[in-house]
Design goal:
five-stranded mixed beta sheet, 2 domains, about 400 residues, 16 strands, BirA Bifunctional Protein, domain 2, RNA-binding, eight-stranded mixed beta sheet, Rossmann fold, single chain
Length: about 400
RNA sequence: GUGACUAUGGUGUAAUGGCAGCACUAGAGAUUGUGGUUCUCUCAGCGCGGGUUCGACUCCCGUUAGUCACCCCA
């Protein structure tokens, strides 16, 4: 019989992984809620143009990583490769940006057509938060704090890398300077950098080739090219982080791959992890670009798949397995419901023989087996067997339920 | 997208080109209502397609999938 695997670059998440997954989502959602963020669910696919315009036509994502298809009416649709543009789009469309500020969080699958490898699947999961309507450092600080809090609650010790790539004004000035610098040294730079210089000069700062790194070490700094406003804003963010005791390292070479970013950008690196587990920044131009008013914004996303294997996790053992020793199933079912009403996990073993039922309970690591047989039915009792200690005692069902 | 490596029951692993074994798991059982230790039995496999050969799990080519690096990114 032919069987089917999950499609290339996707995977099934079950068992312990699933438990990790929901733990990460739960902790994120809890924190976002406590910060006053509201959940927003956007479609899994959008008009292709939404991503082409916002992410940047020159970016790798748009150039070769989008899952784009035509629907039956020849509309060009794309499986979302990231969450920010859809959230911005939805916030505009849904009139959510009227009383500003507006705080939203999301959680879900994203898609990028890449060659799968460690920590890089074609379908991956992100949780993220977006803050609309505040131009000041306050917003940057809030989203960085939220992100940092979540990672901390997950037990991760992360390094925060921080940079400012400036507003549209100082950025274009800087890009000119950088381009001029790089063109002089073009012979020493790799081919990719030549290409980057043409399409998105900032990205050459990100080059991993040693010879390029050496040359670019002398490149002009963004920090020196910032306009007074941007420099002041960035200074406030850094001071705010110090006040909040959030450690960070300024990295003047940090740029982001998506075109809509400006101002402060950041990435969180977990210990030992090569890639960022979370990243974000400010994107003041995005809402306007999508036809909304001129609403400044900042946000971040956490890579759930990347965080999952890093968290310290031990699965909870299920509580009770009800096993029959000749008791009718009806009696078991009613009692099981009473236990569930008390909020405890209770599973009824389908094995008719006590021996096999106990075997099942121990194989599935239940903490207790609840034995019900003729004696227990007659006396309204239950025999509670501790599967680890091997101790067993019989008590009245009423007493048992009270102790839950 | 480029490059390298890998592919055998559900899992982990063997077999100079000559009958595919082993361990774990799972299922059934070892006289009455007591499991996680023992014993017996059972189920289950060469990713797919070509080629070389008397004969291919083994060699060659292709393909698919996985892993790793590059690229890029959460």
């Amino acid at each position: 019989m032919k069987t089917y695997n999950a499609p290339k670059g996707t995977r099934d998440i079950a068992g312990e992984e699933a438990a990790r997954f929901s733990r990460v989502s739960r902790i994120f959602e809890e924190s976002a809620r406590l910060y006053g963020y509201g959940l927003i669910n956007t479609p899994i696919f959008e008009d292709t143009a939404l991503f082409e315009r916002t992410i940047g036509g020159a970016s790798d994502i748009v150039q070769k990583q989008m899952y784009t298809f035509l629907d039956k009416a020849d509309r060009s649709l794309t499986l979302r490769p990231e969450g920010t543009a859809p959230v911005a789009r939805a916030a505009i469309a849904g009139g959510l940006l009227r009383p500003l500020p507006c705080r939203l969080y999301y959680s879900g699958a994203m898609f990028r057509y890449e060659k799968p490898q460690k920590d890089r699947k074609r379908q991956f999961f992100q949780v993220g938060a977006e803050y609309f309507g505040d131009k000041s450092a306050f917003a940057d600080l809030e989203v960085i704090s939220l992100c940092s809090t979540v990672l901390k609650k997950l037990g991760l010790d992360c390094e925060l890398k921080l940079n400012s790539i400036g507003c549209s004004k100082c950025r274009s000035g800087y890009e000119k300077k950088l381009t001029a610098f790089a063109e002089k040294k073009i012979d020493g730079l790799c081919d990719d950098c030549g290409e980057r210089l043409r399409v998105n000069p900032l990205r050459i700062l990100d080059c991993k080739v040693e010879s390029c790194k050496k040359i670019l070490a002398e490149a002009p700094d963004v920090s020196e090219a910032l306009c007074p406003e941007c420099a002041d804003n960035f200074g406030q963010i850094k001071q705010g982080l110090r006040d909040r005791k959030i450690r960070f390292n300024e990295d003047v070479k940090l740029v982001r791959g998506l075109d809509y970013y400006n101002g402060c950008v950041f990435e969180f690196y977990a210990q030992g992890a090569r890639d960022a587990v979370a990243a974000g920044g400010r994107y003041d131009g995005l809402v306007k670009l999508l036809g909304g008013e001129d609403v400044p914004a900042a946000g971040f996303a956490i890579g759930v798949d990347r965080v999952m294997p890093l968290i310290d996790f031990s699965a909870d053992k299920p509580d009770y397995m009800l096993v029959s020793a000749g008791a009718p199933m009806d009696a078991l079912a009613a009692f099981a419901d009473e236990i569930r009403d008390a909020g405890k996990v209770c599973v009824i073993s389908s094995k008719p023989k006590l021996k096999n039922a106990l075997k099942e309970a121990s194989a599935a690591s239940f903490r207790f087996a609840l034995i019900m047989g003729e004696d227990e039915i007659k006396n309204m009792t239950v025999s509670v067997r501790d599967m680890e200690k091997g101790e067993q005692k019989t008590l009245s069902r009423k007493e048992f339920l009270e102790r839950l």
